[in-house]
Amino acid sequence: MEWVSTIIQGVLLGGLYALFATGLSLIFGVMRLVNIAHGDLIVLAAFVSLAVVSGLGLDPLMSLVIVIPVMAAFGYILQRGLLNYTLGNNILPPLLVTFGLSIILENVLLEIFSADSQRLLAGGLETASLALPGGLAVGTFPVMIFVSAVAVIACLQFMLYRTALGRVFRATSDDQQTAQLMGIDNRHVFALAMAVALAIVAVAGVFMAIRTNFDPSVGPARLIYAFEAVIIGGLGNPWGTLAGGVILGVSQAIGAKINPGWQILAGHIVFLVVLVVRPRGLFEKVQDL
Amino acid sequence: MNGHPAFSVERSTRTSRIGSVIGAVLLLVLISVPFWGGRAEMRFIVEVCYYLALAQMWNLLAGYAGLVSVGQQAFVGFGGYMLFVLSIFLGLNPLLALVLAGVLSAAVAVPTALVVFRLRGAYFAIGTWVMAEVYRLLFAQVSALGGGSGKSLPVAIVKSIAASRSLREMTVYWVGLAVAVAAVGLVYAVLRSRHGLALTAIRDSERASESVGVENFKTKLWVYIVAAFGTGMVGALIFLEKLRISPDAGFNLLDWTANVIFIVVIGGIGTIEGPFIGVLVFFLLRELFADLGSWYLILLGAVAVVIMLKAPQGIWGLIAERYNIHLFPVHRRLLLSKDDKIPGED
Fold first, then answer.
1. Which residue of A has its CA nearest to B125?
2. pLDDT, tens digit, for every residue of A77-129?
3. Residue at B288 is within a domain
4. CB-CB under 8 Å, A276 with B308
5. Average pLDDT, rounded, for chain B
6. Do B295 and A111 make contact, defined as CB atoms within 8 angstroms?
7. Is residue B72 within 8 Å of residue B263, measured between CB atoms?
8. What are chain A's domains?
9. What domain range includes position B118?
10. Do A261 and B141 touch (CB under 8 A)?
11. B165 Cβ contact list (under 8 Å, min separation 6)
12. If DSSP codes are grouped into helix, strand and coil, which group holds residue B227?
């Protein structure tokens, strides 16, 4: 029974990892940009929420009403004002510019908020639990995160396949030049994609901040979990990314159960095994996006 | 006049010949520093040396082979730990252990490459980062090496380097200088060899180089291993100087990769001269703005971002383009004898 509980907790943790990963995967899908600053943007969202909560006295979950539009707007400006200039045939500029951005973000947060560990308190939600049959109990909030991850991915899928904006994203992803010939403004589309990605990042960041302690230096680890979830699940498959997040979460939970020092390592090792055995991920989709 | 015109291939330039004389004089001055300089100067120069060597290695990977690694700290930490393992548990002389640490890093680069080479481009970058994290977490599990808190080099081993403290510092200084010279020499030799020609071709266009028979995969693997050798040896040097290692210090992304990337990007990626300029700028900025704390890193990051966007060839690239100077010429120039001009030339 103890093991069942461990696995359930791993699955729920996987929901958070899938939320980390979805934005990263969308950006790569639409504009082939691998954003190394992705983890630091998640942490930025957490700190924006912290500022909103302490400034306006809002509940952390309510702060999403402000954090989501703020991050989305930041994403649009970031893409339009900086990242669009890095895109092209050469892989170096996007990689090195987002790497530089990652270092800049981390140190700006350090300068403003100090290196102290922070946590958002959601009025008892973080400690509440649900009883399951068989004497098991799961945290209410982790269940909420998992359900939100499923909902976010479902919304994203709906947006991509059922709306005009989604059609534009897919067209740009398939063939940039032809899309441009059809009158699509790439710069605007890329900026919109980044805005959507950072709206998801905002949700991920606030949930992370309620669930665990955070400080300006935790960004890179979030990037790595997001990346591992995407690769395990297979590029271009959002539900695969959810599965990848779950596999990563369960591996970490099992690793931690065996030896607390092995939690993160177990996740990395499962990722490396998948990479060697199935380099294109477990659930790769044939088409782009 | 029949057949092809008489020709010779020139591989040096006038500036490179003058440059090598100036370089030799500078090197002699640097070698003599322990006889007249202070302890602080020596420490500073060793630091400059290992950053130069790390930058040369990263530049070989990213600037020539297109392998943008953000996980080279894996080999810095691994090399550093190997110095400790070989000298503490096998009783080897630390200087011998330093060279062997490079060899072992190259050996461990082979299985590492087999995993990370499954990823391309930017995904390769993050993959190397994951590998570095795996090494960090693994070494943190080894209690014989002090686990997460690390280990100091025992006094007996420190004394085995040289009898007195000042003699030991001189030795480390000269080793540091030698490692930097060897790193530059290694990159220069690789680039002037046939592999260098292949690498330059890959740098300019992967597809075109493949079509003229360059074996991209093999060449890249080879470069990855060479860079791991150099980086591992530099890692051993760094921790021979520091005398203490921990997983967080050894596998530090900021110290051993972020700074190095900034150095190469600012100085000029894809040139041997670039890292020299980058190291100068890096230490200059550090001396000027070190008290600003994290603002210094924000500034460094911002300078690198601006250079990447506005002048991706870096400071040296701008100089070389404007004045056509090559201190380390790696290209070949065809010289025809005077009376055999190609029609239409002049």
1. A95
2. 999 999 999 988 788 899 899 999 999 999 999 999 999 999 998 888 888 88
3. no
4. no
5. 89
6. yes
7. no
8. 2-123+137-277 (1.10.3470)
9. 39-265
10. yes
11. none
12. helix
